[in-house]
């Protein structure tokens, strides 16, 4: 292969530029040109296919900075409809006309789901990324446990049959995805900062973190020492929650609850799915889990409780919510994400050059070897109907009694986070935050520079 392309699909994560950088550095070593497609799959849906040559003369362009969050290529949730054959053929023809011999998509489970029809037309591999950490498997035969329900004329839904596999951390496929560590770094700090307000004003704080239907970010936020963690994998037991919150509040006059945005109520309904809207990838937009939880607690506690204790005028005044929101998806990646994002990007290049197709790079962990990169075929994640499901927390990671990570949950987190922050991360904080130049210079967006390098189909030799 002489020329490959790379794109960033789905929501941004802090490790995207690091992954692109790793891919380009490896491509330089192997004398392969790398074309960056602008705004994910959206580039291939336009006749002009906006793109940038990322390594002229096999040297990466200076705009490609692995320590910078987001993606210099731009990202979108656009995808190629797998049932639209004329469109798929058009995409393949554009790829061919550009002399692109293989494509690397940096994405999550949604992106990998959509790769198969493209992989029937040209080689395509995935370098994983997602702050949600939901791309992978808890154990090898996990996809076989999905059961499709509903018959003709009925809505179809998926259900998990009981597992017959003994869980072992070493058998996880794709232990962790780049972006997750930085996201937890941000949510942990958010919790620590909100704690002091809750403590000083005798309040109950509910902090909502992202992660869709997987509780990994909520679980990792345990590093901020919240009192209670609620994950989407375990339906809420309102009475149990109320009792626990009351017990802690009476002891220490403040409570900090972390809730994953996808937490479900006792009826199995997602608490925060207030809006029945979906994004272009078909994901339900989640908003309002913490607010829904707050309403439940306000009703259960009542105003008198707080007045009697002389801590607040009303339950509404005592219980507040904050969303960590998109701050946990943006900004500078911490060391763990930079290192492994880069290694997975490099691995994706090697996979294409080795002739792999419809496959993804993996980051695996074993106690003796630590983290290693490898690869797996996309089909290893597909259920028998061909669908890839977002990975959820293994039930053993969470202690339902204590509402916090279990012992094995803690063992899962430690290899990722114990040395996740590097010395340079601290140096950056020291030097860059209050750099006097920040007061003088307006923000200079990388988009401005990339615009100057942009080419369109037809301009390549
Ligand atoms: O999948 C990543 C993620 O950040 C989720 O955790 C969250 O639900 C969603 O994307 C938010 O998407 P958007 O940026 O489109 O609102």
What does this structure look like?
The protein has three domains: 3-133 and 333-388 and 422-453, Rossmann fold (3-Layer(aba) Sandwich), CATH 3.40.50.450; 142-171, no CATH class; 180-272 and 280-329, 3-Layer(aba) Sandwich (Rossmann fold), CATH 3.40.50.460. With 461 residues, it is an alpha/beta fold. The strands form four sheets. The chain has a seven-stranded mixed sheet with strand order 3-2-1-4-5-12-13. The two termini are 16 Å apart. The protein is built from 15 helices and 15 strands. A hairpin with a 3-residue loop joins strand 12 and strand 13. Helix content is 33%, strand content 16%. Helix 1 crosses helix 11 (335-353). The radius of gyration is 23 Å and the shape is globular. It binds 6-O-phosphono-beta-D-fructofuranose (F6P). The site of 6-O-phosphono-beta-D-fructofuranose has 11 residues, from loops.
Based on the model shown, name its key terms.
Rossmann fold; four-stranded parallel sheet; 15 helices; 15 strands; 33% helix; 16% strand; globular; binds 6-O-phosphono-beta-D-fructofuranose
CATH first level of the largest domain: which class? Answer: Alpha Beta
Bound molecules: 6-O-phosphono-beta-D-fructofuranose
Order of helices and strands: EHEEHEHHEEEHEHEHEHHHEHEEEEHHHH
What is the correct CATH architecture of the largest domain? 3-Layer(aba) Sandwich
Q: Which parts are unreliable, with pLDDT below 50 for 5 consecutive residues or more?
A: none
Which strand order does the major sheet show?
3-2-1-4-5-12-13
Q: Please report the number of helical segments.
A: 15
Radius of gyration: 23 Å
Q: What is the typical, i.e. mean, pLDDT?
A: 94
Residue fraction in strands? 15-25%
Q: Gap between N and C termini, in Å? A: 16 Å
Major beta sheet summary: 7 strands, mixed
Q: What fold name stands as the CATH topology of the largest domain?
A: Rossmann fold
* Number of discrete domains: 3
What oligomeric state is this?
Answer: single chain
Helix share bin = 25-40%
Q: Quickly give the structural class.
A: alpha/beta
The outline comes out as: globular
The count of strands amounts to 15
């Amino acid at each position: 292969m002489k020329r490959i392309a790379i794109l960033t699909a789905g929501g941004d994560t802090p490790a995207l530029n690091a992954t692109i950088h790793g891919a380009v550095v490896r491509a330089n070593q192997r004398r392969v040109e790398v074309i960056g497609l602008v705004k994910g799959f959206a580039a291939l849906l336009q006749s002009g296919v906006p793109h940038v040559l990322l390594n002229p003369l096999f040297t990466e362009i200076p705009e490609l900075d692995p320590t910078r969050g987001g993606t210099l290529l731009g990202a979108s949730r656009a995808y190629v409809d797998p049932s639209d054959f004329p469109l798929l053929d058009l995409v393949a023809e554009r790829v061919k006309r550009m002399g692109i011999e293989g494509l690397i998509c940096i994405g999550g489970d949604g992106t990998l789901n959509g790769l198969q029809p493209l992989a029937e037309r040209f080689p395509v591999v995935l370098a994983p990324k997602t702050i949600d950490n939901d791309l992978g498997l808890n154990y090898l035969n996990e996809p076989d446990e999905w059961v499709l329900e509903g018959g003709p004329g009925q809505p179809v839904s998926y259900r998990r049959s009981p597992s017959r596999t003994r869980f072992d951390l070493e058998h996880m496929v794709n232990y962790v995805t780049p972006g997750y560590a930085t996201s937890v770094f941000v949510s942990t700090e958010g919790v620590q900062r909100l704690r002091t307000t809750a403590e000083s004003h005798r309040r109950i704080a509910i902090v909502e973190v992202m992660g869709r239907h997987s509780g990994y970010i909520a679980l990792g936020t345990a590093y901020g020492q919240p009192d209670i963690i609620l994950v989407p994998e375990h339906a809420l037991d309102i009475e149990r929650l109320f009792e626990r919150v009351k017990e802690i509040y009476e002891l220490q006059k403040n409570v900090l609850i972390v809730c994953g945005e996808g937490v479900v109520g006792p009826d199995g309904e997602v608490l925060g799915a207030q809006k029945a809207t979906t994004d272009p990838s078909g994901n339900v937009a989640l908003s309002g889990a913490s607010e829904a939880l707050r309403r439940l607690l306000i009703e259960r506690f009542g105003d008198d409780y707080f007045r009697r204790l002389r801590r607040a005028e009303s339950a509404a005044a005592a219980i507040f919510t904050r969303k960590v929101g998109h701050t946990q998806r943006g900004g500078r990646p911490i060391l763990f994400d930079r290192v492994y994002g880069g290694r997975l990007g490099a691995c994706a290049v090697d996979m294409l050059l080795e002739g792999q197709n419809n496959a993804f790079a993996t980051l695996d962990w074993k106690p003796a070897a630590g983290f290693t990169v490898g690869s797996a075929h996309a089909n290893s994640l597909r259920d028998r109907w061909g669908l890839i499901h977002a990975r959820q927390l293994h039930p053993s990671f969470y202690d339902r009694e204590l509402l916090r990570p279990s012992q094995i949950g803690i063992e899962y987190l430690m290899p990722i986070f114990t040395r996740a922050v590097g010395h340079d991360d601290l140096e950056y904080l020291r030097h860059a935050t209050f750099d006097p130049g920040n007061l003088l210079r307006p923000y200079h967006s990388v988009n401005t520079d990339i615009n100057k390098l942009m080419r369109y189909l037809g301009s390549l030799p």
